[in-house]
Design a protein that fits this description.
It is built from four helices and four strands. The protein has 148 residues and is α+β, with helices and mostly antiparallel strands. A four-stranded mixed sheet has the order 3-2-1-4, with helices on one face. Helix 1 packs across helix 2, helix 2 packs parallel to helix 4 and helix 3 packs antiparallel against helix 4. The protein is globular, with a radius of gyration of 14 Å. Bound molecules: zinc ion.
């Protein structure tokens, strides 16, 4: 586990320092906001979806390293995915960080480092915030998603 923990910290810190796709998307056609009251993490997620495919994605917000890194890595993995694939990724990621038995890191790519979160259960909501917000954006919900 120690290799995984090291990799986890390295990847999280890298994405916290240089979040990818950290900007407002002017031509977004889906968006949602998320809030994790436990930690104070906030995210505003923007998506541009054309013909059922995620063409572009961006986010703004402020939060802890885990929520920022998770959002950053999520946006990286979403481009080019269909809405169904994005939903599938949500399920896989959720299973992984919840430590569910059926969790299958295959297909998650770099997101697999979040399996290290099983050791920090209180941070799971930080890691899943962006993903719940993604789901709300895909479903066209305009209300703020809270992790509670
Ligand atoms: Zn947090």
């Amino acid at each position: 586990m120690s290799d995984l923990r090291e990799l986890y910290q390295e990847v999280i810190l890298d994405h916290q320092r240089r979040p990818r796709n950290f900007h407002r998307l002017e031509d977004a056609n889906r968006q949602a906001e998320g809030f994790n009251p436990l930690c104070g993490d906030r995210i505003h997620l923007y998506l541009r979806i054309e013909d059922g495919v995620v063409k572009d994605v961006g986010f703004e917000g402020s939060g802890c390293a885990i929520s920022t890194a998770s959002a950053s890595m999520m946006t990286e993995s979403l481009k080019g995915k269909t809405e169904a694939q994005a939903e599938e990724l949500f399920e896989k990621f959720h299973d992984l960080v919840m430590g569910r038995q059926q969790a299958d890191p295959a297909g998650l790519g770099k997101l697999a480092v979040f399996s290290g979160l099983r050791e920090y259960p209180v941070r799971v909501k930080c890691a899943t915030l962006a993903w719940h917000t993604l789901r709300a954006a895909l479903q066209g919900s305009l209300e703020t998603v809270a992790t509670e």
